[in-house]
Amino acid sequence: MKSITLKPARALKGELTVPGDKSISHRSIMLGAIANGVTTVRGFLRGEDNMSTMHAFRAMGVRIDDDGETLAIHGRGLHGLQEPGDVLDCGNSGTTIRLITGLLSGQSFFSVVTGDQYLRKRPMKRVVEPLSRMGARISGRNQGGLAPLAINGGGLRAIDYDSPVSSAQIKSSIMLAGLYADGATTVREPSLSRDHSERMFRLFGASLESFENGVTVHGGAELNGQEVSVPGDISSAAFFIVAALITPDSELLIRNVGINPTRTGVLDILTEMGGSIQLLDQRELSGEPVADLLVRSSRLKGITISGSVVPRAIDEFPVVCVAAACAEGITSLRDAKELRVKETDRISAMATNLRALGVVVTETEDGMNISGAERISGGRVESFGDHRIAMSMAIAAQVATDAITIQDTECVATSFPTFFPLLEKVAEK
Length: 429
Ligand code: S3P
Known about the structure:
Bound molecules: shikimate-3-phosphate
Largest sheet: 5 strands, mixed
Number of helices: 13
Distance between the termini: 26 Å
Helix content: 25-40%
CATH architecture of the largest domain: Alpha-beta prism
CATH class of the largest domain: Alpha Beta
Shape: globular
Oligomer: single chain
Strand content: 25-35%
Radius of gyration: 21 Å
CATH superfamily of the largest domain: Enolpyruvate transferase domain
């Protein structure tokens, strides 16, 4: 197991570009694979999670060329995927396994999906239950609640589904199955989760209508290959945004970041805490809004975070916790029970790590209270096998009074393989 020791920085300065958006990269392969014709993808994220998606589609007969810059996905049409000869390994990727299970539910062949030790503990009932209602025959460990999952698809009927959780993975899984269903499939959620699927379905020519908290997909429409440009991932940018805000004398320009409103909860939260984040040169890329972000060191204050902003910032809470630990006063997070079923239990992981650095944290069932500290001390912390926990602790290390050693950092490669070199580039020691 690799561990990394990081010393505090004097300041973070300069310009950087973060790698492509993970969610959009997954979807570009999935829709490209079932479209007619070739889809080209620029800015594709070559993290382990997205490579799991790529391998799975290659295993179903999809030719994907990669010249190191652009992917060319040779679409096989809505009904052209082949039965995979082996189990599809989704690695650590919740998005791969949940979305692909929806897509496989529409295929008239047999398939098995699984993942690593962390993914095999994460809840799958949330997709298995609605997909079974559509007519897919899915079995798995724990009565279909845990991977591996075995799927016999085909012959789907449309459903009208009220999801109990705001989750783009649930919504997208049902939407993908909906492409194969007889009729109009509707998914509603308590508050809107990221809408990259809706945007990309539209780009590829699917037939769908979005409304306030949901979407309706009409089955049977053929998709056409597209040229997709993937913006930088705001979830990756978030580490550098927080680093620049909490480290004195810092100024960072982060170029080409996706600012889809269903993803910008982190900007709203950090701005409310007093952070200086400017959006420059706002533009559009493949149906997604994009901007350059100029971030300057700021004095942060504690706030209460709850309600509909939570799904709009769902992946950024580990690093928001680091911002809270450096803010004046108490930050309270509520309505965030979903964090307990991410790559690890992120509430418990961040509470444990911040306490190890002298920060006062109390956990609640659906969130936590963090008392902003005068100082974060050095020490040893763990990743818990979760990329975002590892990277958040690397950001805490920029302002700690002493070095921080982070154990088990290989997981960073799942979403951001170039994270440590980029951090080194902008952190002045
Ligand atoms: C994702 C949805 C979110 C997010 C994950 C990516 C997606 O998961 O945490 O990193 O691409 O659809 P949930 O839908 O479980 O909230």
